[in-house]
Hints:
This protein has helices at residues 4-46, 50-55, 127-139, 149-157, 211-237, 251-261, and strands spanning 66-70, 74-82, 87-96, 101-105, 108-110, 161-166, 172-179, 184-185, 191-192, 195-198. The chain is an alpha+beta fold. Strands 1-2-3-4-5 form a five-stranded antiparallel sheet, covered by helices on one side. The protein has a three-stranded antiparallel sheet with strand order 6-7-10. Strands 8-9 form a two-stranded antiparallel sheet. A hairpin with a 5-residue loop joins strand 6 and strand 7 (172-179).
Amino acid sequence: MVSTKGYRENLAKEKQKQRQGHTALNVCSERSDSNQVTDVAIADDGDFTFAHLQQNISQVKLPSGWTPRTSPARLMISQLECTDEDMKVSRTVTISDDLHWKVKIHGHDIPNTHPAFNDTSTVIDSFEMLEKLLALISDCNICCGNPEQMFVELLQSKGGEIVKAISFAGEKEVSAYLEGDFNATSLDGTSYHHTVRTSKCSLITDKNRCTECCKYRNNLRSLVSRRKSDNLGDENKTHSSSRTNLRYLTNQQLQQRAKKLTQ
């Protein structure tokens, strides 16, 4: 028969065992809950989707002057420039629903193979990666082309482009074109509203002018010189003392010569 003292000692031991067991269960439960929370967090980080990007675009730190525009199949983030006439989109990063991106600067696509993107993945896989890409495009220097007025006027006289050749199918091979107003500033701080670019212009460059536009300057100078000579020749042909046979004059030149003869 167990004494009262022995009974109390046995009861105290049983309660102590129960408390230890309960504590152990709580610890296991807390560890299990902690693991579940960690697993969820990891799943969120690794499951970066286009829908997730669209829903949380407000988390992205956009460069100054950049605005997002979403649609079911793509996300466009653009930089706007205020020109003398209206607002123009200067730079754009477009992300498709498969998270691949492409860049457009001054209306022209920049291939992902451009040296400026050598260290950049072709797929957006995080908000941080997108922010780095936007900062890269926002801060990159754009080739100034050839903004001198004589070159701009030359292209304006040719309808905005210099055609190198035309195929039998009627397709034009353009060697240079006149770019509209983007309220741009060159690397040396010069502002310009129009410029002439070669069709091979790289647009993104670490210099004031890309290599291709530098090389094309000689062509532009030759064309400007030829244009001046042609204009001077026209002036000589229409002069009142000109000896040029009338049959070699255009209708406009004939009118100009007749007008000078009566003066």
